[in-house]
Amino acid sequence: MTAETPSPKTKPAARSGRRGGESTTRDDILIAARKLFGENGFTKTSMRSIAADAGVDVALVSYHFGSKRGLFTAVMQVPGDPVSRVIEAAQGPRGELGRRLIITFTSIWESDGMGTALQAMLRSAVNDDGAANTFGDFASGEMMPALASTAGLSDETVRAVGSCVFGLALMRYLVGAETFTALSTQEIIDQFGPRIQAIIDADDDLRAPTPTPR
């Protein structure tokens, strides 16, 4: 009687996706996020769509970056979370908010780590439409609402404050206009703090009910 020949074992199917290791997975997610943020903006891009484009499970996006904001800072190569810094500055007495904001602004933009990265990001936003769309949507969808909700400011006032600080960043750190670069950090704080505070104070006046004429 002839012994039966054992059937060969079936090899397990290869796992789909582009993962080839931890570093490859992280890089794939960054590439996908950079592309989708640039095409659709920060707000309209979901972590699930980034994972799908990268060919990985969505849980891996959270594993590597924690949140969509964390992924944004990695894409833009900014250490830390700028939104958390805005929220921290917005907390405290309202009458000192302008000074706190400009102190936070200068401490971030003139630091060796985050400041260098933000200046590089600003240059990218000026020269690259995708980077501009990513940063612009992040500022509009995350940073501005965080300031408005934490400080209790109207959207109109937050836009005015934002135009001041980002205009200052453009002129001082990107364009390098002498009238801005010639000022010391303390002079920037002393000159811009009260003026930003005046915008904030005007928010209360503009939202105060108009007295009914007798």
Structural class from helices and strands?
mainly alpha
Strand content: under 5%
The largest sheet, given as strand count, sense and whether it forms a barrel, is: none
Strand and helix order: HHHHHHHHHHH
Describe the SSE topology.
Blueprint: H1 22-40, H2 47-54, H3 58-65, H4 68-75, H5 82-90, H6 97-109, H7 114-127, H8 129-151, H9 155-175, H10 178-181, H11 185-207
Helix pairs in contact: 1-2, 1-4, 1-8, 2-3, 3-4, 5-6, 5-8, 6-11, 7-8, 8-9, 9-11
Task: Give structural notes.
The protein is mostly helical. The protein is 70% helix and 0% strand. The protein has eleven helices and no strands. The protein has helices at residues 22-40, 47-54, 58-65, 68-75, 82-90, 97-109, 114-127, 129-151, 155-175, 178-181, 185-207. It is globular, with a radius of gyration of 24 Å. The N and C termini lie far apart (117 Å). Residues 6-20 have low confidence and may be disordered.
Provide a brief overview of the structure.
The chain has helices at residues 22-40, 47-54, 58-65, 68-75, 82-90, 97-109, 114-127, 129-151, 155-175, 178-181, 185-207. With 214 residues, the chain is mostly helical.
List the main descriptive attributes of the protein structure presented here.
214 residues, mainly alpha, 11 helices
